[in-house]
Amino acid sequence: MSIYRQATLGEPNNRITFNDFTNSPVYRVQTRAPQRFEIRDDNIPVPFESGVNDFQTLIGQTIYVIKGTMYPSSEVSYDEGIANLRAVCSLDLQQSSSYSTDSGYMPYTWEEANGSRILFVKALYVQLVEDTRQGFVQPFTIYCKIKDPTIYGATLKTATSEPSNAVAGLGSAAYPFGYPIAYGATLYTTTSSAINNGNIPCYPVSIDIYGPVTNPIITNAATGEYIQVNTTLASTSNILHIEYNNSKLAVTVGGNSVAKDVTTSSDYFKIQPGENVISLTGSSVGTGAYYVLTYRDAYALA
């Protein structure tokens, strides 16, 4: 990883760009892959709780430290730069990401030779020790909490099964009693592949299933795990939305929770490294049913 490539911290409405030499002030950091740190190892002072309920359980948690130097062009630029650092590290900052239900998490994004990487962090505070010996040059250290020690590909990827990919098979209609042979309605299966170019499994960002389908089952052939929801989607305008990670679970139809209808045999599967063949089946799957799965490549945080 080369030094001085551009990186960003924060959302578009509140963002700092590192290693951008076209503007002032310049925030210079070495944009390498993040490493694990422990608060107890670094003896980092933890502020009292102030608006965000994260400070009670920080000791021993994994964090990421961004160390850099600010190079302003004038006293005005210096003041603006300090204000920007304080703003992006505010204890009361309310930012959100598609990854986390907690407020205050934001993307730290940087470039590597084979693409952009992203880590979802919460900036706890910025440490500034002002020293006039170097003029306006100002070292800074940003301490960030990491909820999920996973580096993601910055590009949100999609695996979707088009209706034209449906493969017809006979039987498998749902009856209140059994027949000795498959009998009745046509069953369709729609399939596509999700390719995780990273080196560790990751949760999908979201799964959307479009009807018509009864008791939809979304299966990852890479592991054999599946999620089955006992509900009916009458048409393509009926959408089953599934979203889960290590802190969030949402299973909804039309904004209403159907989490209670997820079968006990279901597993909230991860996208494995390499190819994952994802298929949509069910008790009855009509023509035009399909799914859209979004995900990111995932890499281990060293």
What is the overall pLDDT average? 82
State the shape. elongated
User: What structural class is derived from the secondary structure elements?
Assistant: mainly beta
Helix-strand string: EEEEHEHEEEEEEEEEEEEEEEEEEE
End-to-end gap: 14 Å
- Radius of gyration, rounded? 24 Å
* CATH topology grouping of the largest domain: Jelly Rolls
Q: Would you state the CATH class of the largest domain?
A: Mainly Beta
What would CATH call the architecture of the largest domain? Sandwich
What characterizes the major β-sheet?
10 strands, antiparallel
Continuous helix count: 2
Secondary structure: number of strands: 24
- Uncertain regions spanning at least 5 consecutive residues: 48-57, 168-186
> What is the count of distinct domains?
2
Percent of residues in helices: under 10%
Strand content: 35-45%
Q: Could you name the key traits of this structure?
A:
302 residues, 2 domains, single chain, 6-stranded antiparallel β-sheet, Elongation Factor Tu (Ef-tu), domain 3, 10-stranded antiparallel β-sheet, mainly beta, 24 strands, Jelly Rolls, 42% strand, 6% helix, 2 helices
Quick overview:
This protein has two helices and 24 strands.
Structural commentary:
The protein is mainly beta and 302 residues long. It is built from two helices and 24 strands. The protein has helices at 39-42, 75-88; strands spanning 7-11, 14-18, 26-29, 37-38, 62-71, 106-112, 115-128, 138-146, 150-153, 157-160, 167-170, 186-196, 206-210, 213-214, 217-220, 225-228, 232-233, 239-244, 249-253, 256-257, 274-281, 284-285, 290-295, 298-300. Strands 1, 2, 3, 4, 5, 6, 7, 8, 9 and 24 form a ten-stranded antiparallel beta sheet that branches. A six-stranded antiparallel beta sheet has the order 10-23-13-18-19-20, with no helix packed on it. The longest helix is centred in the first third of the chain and has 14 residues, at 75-88. The relative contact order is 0.16.
